[in-house]
């Protein structure tokens, strides 16, 4: 181990942590993108279950997860739940992306929303 | 050199390719941490070893062959694409860095791990025609660094333990 090694390692990990800790707002809607085109946008406040291609997508209690997929790897199944704006689940074999969007560009977020007046 | 095969060199790279394939095979059977893209990159040990002992072209050739054969055996066309994007970029990056006096194999390997993951993200963005995959960038940045450090220590130990075969492997001229 030399000094240059430590510089590379710590810079990369710090940068990663910084990007991870960037504040994220709660999600409002789910956008489904298949083969590069948007299939539809669904509100997170309404529970539903639907199928796009070989993938079964579930919206439940404001969170989204992949319930079933016919892809060989199944990475999207183990990706778990997403609910914050900017989070996504990607199924590469089926070229499918589930992305959570937040409220676009308005002022108070969920944390301050109840305080003002 | 024309028409004449250096048997020792051929055998050496054959053994190295076999070793890299065994490491790929072992890694293929390790449990996945549940997120696509996070993997140890055990075969990177061989790439680093070759880089330090035989130079850039040997490391690149064996790495590319390893990725192609490994994915033919137990991968898919898609995983070969990602493997090649990551593997070639990582070797290129490590080849640029490994001669720097302030870096050891650990730092070079960490940089290789980072570049490997970034290249795969770019590749995934191209396949999905969306930048959404870059949401994984922070996690992959950290995992690439840590896995690179681990394989870097393995490679550093291997390089130290093995006698310098460079003179024997390269044509003595």
Provide structural commentary.
The complex is a heterodimer of chains A (117) and B (173). Chain A has a domain at 25-103: N-utilization substance G protein NusG, insert domain (mini-chromosome maintenance (MCM) complex, domain 2, Sandwich). Helices cover 20% and strands 34% of the residues of chain A. Chain A has helices at 3-21, 110-113, and strands at residues 29-34, 37-43, 48-52, 55-60, 63-68, 88-91, 96-101. In chain A, strands 2-1-7-6 form a 4-stranded antiparallel sheet, with no helix packed on it. The longest helix of chain A is centred in the first third of the chain and has 19 residues, at 3-21. The radius of gyration of chain A is 18 Å and the shape is globular. With 173 residues, chain B is an all-alpha fold. Chain B has one domain (7-29, 36-164): Orthogonal Bundle (Arp2/3 complex 21 kDa subunit ARPC3), CATH 1.10.1760.20. Chain B has 7 helices and no strands. In chain B, helix 2 (44-54) runs antiparallel to helix 3 (56-74) and helix 5 (105-128) packs antiparallel against helix 6. Chain B is globular and about 50 Å long. The mean pLDDT of chain B is 89. Classes of the chains: A alpha+beta (117), B mainly alpha (173). The A-B interface holds A 1-9, 12-13, 15-20, 33, 35-36, 72-73, 75, 78-80, 86-88, 90, 92-93, 95, 97, 99 and B 32, 34-36, 76, 78, 100, 102-104, 106-107, 110-111, 114, 124, 127-130, 132-133, 135-139, 141-142, 144-146, 149, 152.
């Amino acid at each position: 181990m030399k000094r240059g090694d430590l510089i590379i390692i710590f810079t990369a990990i710090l940068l990663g942590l910084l990007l991870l800790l960037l504040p994220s707002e709660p999600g409002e809607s789910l956008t489904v993108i298949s083969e590069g085109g948007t299939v539809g946008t669904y509100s997170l406040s309404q529970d539903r279950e639907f199928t796009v291609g070989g993938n079964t997508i579930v919206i439940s209690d404001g969170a989204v997860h992949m319930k079933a997929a016919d892809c060989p790897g199944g990475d999207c199944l183990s990706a778990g739940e997403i609910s914050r704006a900017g989070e996504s689940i990607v199924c590469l074999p089926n070229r499918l992306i589930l992305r959570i969007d937040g409220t676009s560009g308005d002022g108070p977020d969920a944390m301050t929303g109840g305080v003002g007046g | 050199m024309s028409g004449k095969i250096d048997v020792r060199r051929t055998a050496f790279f054959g053994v190295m390719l076999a070793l890299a394939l065994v490491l790929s095979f072992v890694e293929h059977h390790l449990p996945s941490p549940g997120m696509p893209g996070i993997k140890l990159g055990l075969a990177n040990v061989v790439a680093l070893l070759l880089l330090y002992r035989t130079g850039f072209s040997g490391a690149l050739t064996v790495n590319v062959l390893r990725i192609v054969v490994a994915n033919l055996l137990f991968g898919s066309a898609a995983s070969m694409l990602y493997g090649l994007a990551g593997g070639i970029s990582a070797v290129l990056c490590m080849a640029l860095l490994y001669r720097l006096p302030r870096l050891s194999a650990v730092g070079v390997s960490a940089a290789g791990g980072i570049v490997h993951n970034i290249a795969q993200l770019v590749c995934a963005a191209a396949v999905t025609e969306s930048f959404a995959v870059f949401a994984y960038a922070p996690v992959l940045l950290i995992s690439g660094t840590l896995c690179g450090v681990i394989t870097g220590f393995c490679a550093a130990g291997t390089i130290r333990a093995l006698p310098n075969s460079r003179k024997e492997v390269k044509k003595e001229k």
